[in-house]
Design brief:
Strand content: 15-25%
CATH topology: Purple Acid Phosphatase, chain A, domain 2
Number of domains: 1
Radius of gyration: 18 Å
Largest sheet: 6 strands, mixed
CATH superfamily: Metallo-dependent phosphatases
Distance between the termini: 30 Å
Oligomer: single chain
Number of helices: 6
Shape: globular
Strand order of the largest sheet: 4-5-7-9-11-10
Order of helices and strands: EHEHEHEEEHEHEHEEEEEEE
Structural class: alpha/beta
CATH architecture: 4-Layer Sandwich
Length: 282
C-alpha cells in the first residue's frame, strides 16, 4: 500500500567508483572521501530523505574488495538505500556484498520496485557486461511494461544507470543506451511517470523524454569535462561533490534540486546578512 503523505524526499547519488584501499581512479582520484562527504551531507539534511537511490557505477573494477569498501562507506547512511547496477558493476559481487538487500534478487537482472512511498520507484538494469554503454533488451523492456501496467495511474519514478538521451557531450554520448527507442515506446504509453533518473554522465543534465523528464545526477567524486559538441575531451574535472534531490509535492509533482557536499559558507540572512543557524542533525 502507498503511504498517504503530502511530501516526500528522494535523494540520488551516482557514479561513486569506489576502489580498493590505497588505489586511485585514473592514477589521481581517491573516490572514497568524496562519498563520505556526500553521506554526511545527506545525513544532515532536514528533512532526512525517505530514500537514497544510488544509480550505478558503485565500484570501479567490480571486485569483492571494492564492494566491501563501498559497504563500509555507506554504512553510516541513515536513510534507506536502494542500489542500481551500472557498467562498472558486477551483479553477483554486488549481491554477495549486500545480502540484506533482498530486493537485489539471487540471479538475473537487478530489477525491482519500491512500493511503500507516495511515489512508486521502478529500478531497471542497463548493464551490458564488458561494455561501457548500456542495453535494454526486449526482456527488460517487457518487464518494465508489465510493472507500469500494474498501476498506470500511480505517480512513478524510473531509475537506471545509462541515460536514454544524448547530452551533447559527445565524449560520453558515444557510450549510450542500446534500446533507448524501446524505452521511449514503453514510457510513452503511460502518463504517470514523474521522472526518469540516471547516472553515467557524471554531470547534472535534464531533457524531455517520451512525455516525461529524464534527469542525470552528478557524480559524488569526479565530473566529466563539460565540453559540448566537438569541444569536449575524454577527461574529467574535480568540481564539488554533489547529489540530486527529488521533492514530491502532492498535487504538483516532483521538484528537483542539486546539493553540494563540499564545504561552503552560509546560510546568511537576506535581511541583514547575519549568520543563520540551519537545521542540524540530532
Amino acid at each position: 500500500m502507498a503511504v498517504c503523505c503530502p511530501a516526500m524526499l528522494i535523494a540520488q547519488i551516482t557514479d561513486t567508483h569506489i576502489r580498493a584501499q590505497g588505489e586511485l581512479c585514473y592514477n589521481r582520484v581517491d573516490t572514497a572521501p568524496y562519498l563520505e562527504r556526500v553521506v554526511a551531507a545527506l545525513n544532515a539534511l532536514r528533512p532526512v530523505p525517505d530514500l537514497v537511490i544510488a544509480t550505478g557505477d558503485l565500484t570501479d573494477r567490480t571486485t569483492p574488495e571494492e564492494y566491501a569498501r563501498l559497504k563500509g562507506l555507506l554504512a553510516p547512511l541513515k536513510p534507506r538505500l536502494a542500489l542500481v547496477v551500472g557498467n562498472h558493476d558486477n551483479r553477483d559481487n554486488l549481491r554477495k556484498a549486500f545480502p540484506e538487500h533482498r530486493y537485489l534478487g539471487s540471479t538475473g537482472f537487478v530489477q525491482y520496485t519500491i512500493e511503500d512511498l507516495p511515489v512508486r520507484a521502478i529500478v531497471l538494469d542497463t548493464l551490458d557486461p564488458g561494455q561501457i554503454g548500456g542495453r535494454l533488451c526486449a526482456e527488460r523492456l517487457a518487464w518494465l511494461d508489465a510493472r507500469l501496467a500494474e498501476q498506470p495511474k500511480r505517480p512513478t519514478l524510473i531509475a537506471l544507470h545509462h541515460p536514454p538521451f544524448r547530452t551533447g557531450i559527445e565524449a560520453m554520448d558515444q557510450f549510450g543506451l542500446i534500446g533507448a527507442e524501446g524505452l521511449a515506446d514503453v514510457v510513452g504509453k503511460y502518463r504517470n511517470i514523474e521522472r526518469i533518473i540516471c547516472g553515467h554522465q557524471h554531470r547534472s543534465v535534464d531533457a524531455r523524454f517520451a512525455g516525461t523528464i529524464a534527469s542525470i545526477g552528478p557524480a559524488t567524486a569526479h565530473q566529466v569535462f563539460l565540453g559540448l559538441g566537438d569541444h569536449g575531451v575524454w577527461g574529467f574535472t574535480m568540481e564539488p561533490s554533489a547529489y540530486r534531490l527529488y521533492w514530491w509535492i502532492a498535487g504538483q509533482g516532483l521538484v528537483s534540486h542539486v546539493g553540494h557536499a563540499a564545504p561552503f559558507d552560509g546560510p546568511y540572512s537576506f535581511k541583514d546578512g547575519a549568520a543563520l543557524n540551519p537545521p542540524v542533525a540530532p
